[in-house]
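hey so i finally got around to running the thing on that chain from the lab meeting. sorry it took forever, my laptop kept dying and i had to restart like 3 times. anyway pasting the input first so we r on the same page abt which one it is
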Amino acid sequence: MSEPMREQTRETVYFRMESRSHNEQFARVVVAVFASRLDPTVEELNDIKTAVSEAVTNAIIHGYEEKDGWVEMEVSVDTTARELTVTVSDAGRGIEDIEKAREPFFTTKGENERSGMGFSFMEAFMDTLEVESEAGRGTRIRMSKKIGQPEC
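ok and heres what got predicted. didnt touch it at all, straight out
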């Protein structure tokens, strides 16, 4: 007799996309559909989509400097903890000074070209944000958000 099946509380999807600006929208849609397993509010969903947009755009614009490369995403939901986790990785140029890059308005691009608010938006819209990077090897951003949590 086989063991009874336990309810799976974590589901994960992994995908890889070319570092092209139009794929930022694709990433937003994939994450939004996957997050729907947790029945988020419209506001929670918009927060998640904004954070994903910033992470993917950073990989394309800063990581690869709009050259060819791959952006990888891993998205998981934990239905018991009601938590969504998104990891965005690239093998681009990396970030020399992570703390400096996380400062509001900091950008490596021209003043009029980028706002320098990507990490600030990710931190504001998600509950956790971890950034790992090595110059010349790429960057990995991991962020998570609890769904259905009361606002403080």
